[in-house]
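Chapter summary example: a protein plus zinc ion.
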Amino acid sequence: MASSEQIRQRIEEFARQLTDELGEVDEADGVCWLDAVENQAIEIGDAIAAALVKQTTVQRPHGDESLCPQCGKSGRYRGARERELIGRRGPTTIAEPEYYCPCCRKAFFPADPSDRR
Ligand SMILES: [Zn+2]
């Protein structure tokens, strides 16, 4: 895992590149130029937060089997299903591990997919 200093440096570099690519900020996008700059930065920050949430949920480890919440028997991992949520920073998509219980003939989504039998 990268140190917080390494992350800070990567964010600085990313911000420098984005600033070059985005060009001039339109003052009409805020009550003044600085407000418009901040509005753009907040929008980008929210998009980065949403991308981080999605990637982190995609990479979260999961077991091959999980216990069915209905009958308590073992269900098999069937893949990840995308789900739209409203997070603290607005709409976000998560990847949720889906399991299938052959007894109940139903898919289920355990609260903690790292729970293994
Ligand atoms: Zn079941």
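Key point: The chain is about 40% helix and 25% strand.
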